[in-house]
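Board notes (copied after class):
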Amino acid sequence: MSSNGGDRNRDLGRLFEEKRRADESSAPSLRELIARPRDHRAPRARALWRAGLAMATTIVLLASVVLLRARMSRAPETQLTPVAAQIAAWRAPSDVLLQTPGSDLLSQLPVLESHASETATVVFEPTKGVER
């Protein structure tokens, strides 16, 4: 290591030591800290903040319930306007191209038949440990 690097390290160490001593000298003693009266404003402020938050939450919930009930109480519109009915009934001319051979199988559930009587007649011979 060069002497220049060593000088910098010593200078930094000295500066940190001076800063630590300055901080220690400005700190109050433990007896002074214990003797100080406690500030009771902070818990009151926290309680007011919590109460305000609870009130705001309650107001938002009540407004949501009122709006939802108002929306649900409206009679549902069961009849479409003529334009909407015409749009809903429209079919693209190219829909015919989507009907491919076997596409009807995709719209039906498969029927699985039970062949219990056939499987009952099959006898499985043990093969493990049997010489061939």
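Comment from the instructor: DSSP finds six helices and no strands in the chain. Residues 41-73 form the longest helix (33 residues).
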